[in-house]
Amino acid sequence: MKAMADNKNNLFDRQILKLRRARAKKLGLEEFLYEILIDNLKFRLEELNRNFENSVVITPFLENFSYSIHNKSYEKAEDNEELDLNRKYDLIIHFLCLHWSNDPLGQLIQIKRSLNQGGIAVGYLFGENTLNELRKSFAMAEISLENSLSARVSPMMELKSLGDLLSKAGFRDIVTDLISQKVHYHSIAGLFSDLRRMGETNVLQKRTKSFLRRSTYNSMKKKYEEEFSNNDRKLMATFDIICFTGWKM
Fold it and tell me: 2-131+155-207+238-247, which class in CATH?
């Protein structure tokens, strides 16, 4: 696992990801999506109507995950490629970090192995249409001014692909669905600020490491304002979150 995580051919640079998450903590985490998803998680667990004795939350911001779910405290595990799960659980929650894994199938297999028989995994991750407005605006600007296209926004997983991975990992009674949030910003700077404070900026290995040209930035900003603003001239940004559940039978 560790050799895989250090491979320069991986899609994501996990060392940079750690630095970006550390920066987010210093800036002050933006948690509006966490709050939405915690409410969703509470609802889903109520629907299951089960008493889970041993539960763990895998999350990138351990000390900031202070939410109480049904007045229970949850064990916490750090989001690493090799998960530190040394015992069996009835419930494993993978919270808004699987989209940064270089080996999501391996993560899911680790989770399944750490579940008791009859246990369930519940997870949230960003889906393929997340930040599609920003991705399209960058593409239009770069093609127009530089006659090239670079990876400015990380790719995210498709709903069907995740279902296939869960099946390959050996889960049963799999359910995947989408929670789509449209967020409005007064400026592109506001969106960038939130992404930094969420620890969700681009960490692709093959990301463009040179500074963005001022002309390209201005063109991207203009195209975003022209194509993706509402009647109040606020910029729209899509955050698509995939939720999954899978049982170990």
Answer: alpha beta
